[in-house]
Predict the structure.
Amino acid sequence: MTRSRAETVLNELRSMESARNRRGMGRYGINTARALGVSIAQLRPIARRLGGDHRLAEELWGSGIHEARILASMLANPLAVSPRDMDRWVRELDSWDLCDQVCANLFERTPHAHRKALLWSRRKQEFVKRAGFSLMARIAVSQKGMPDSAFAPMLLAIRREAEDERNYVKKAVNWALRQIGKRNPALRQKALAEAARLRRRHSAAARWIGADAERELLGRSIT
């Protein structure tokens, strides 16, 4: 029987397994339950060699292996990804790095990115919500032609969700606020105004998000 392309790739990834790297991933808060310890720097040449292959991406995602899923996000065709596909993948995110890699490599490049960012920001699941704000940050960095008005709902989402105390959520909310503020002077002022509001909230998470965003956008210490 001919070995499938997915099986060949998975065997290659397994041959690169590193317990030492896996321990290092764990120290950074990465979920290593299904990880091999293969780095992003090792995955990128494999992705370039394989080229775009949406079917292979789906098979690699289905393996459940951490690095295979990151590789899948590099191989998938963003124009072939439906909103339903995005919802299916996002529900299976189980680590902050997988979340951010899938958002950067794939979700942000789909036609559905803006809508999904806003929808996911309302979800209860930790990594689904993080994906919403990670997408906002990616959109702010990469989609240069997007008008400033498109970021108004994102700033409202930041205000609404800033009291979520979960570490991986509040860091993504903060990331989105900072990246929106870096787009241009007008959005910088709006982001700073939002940060000032958050600093006055009773929530420790909101105060941290606001203070940290101000610190970076103003380039000085905030007391």
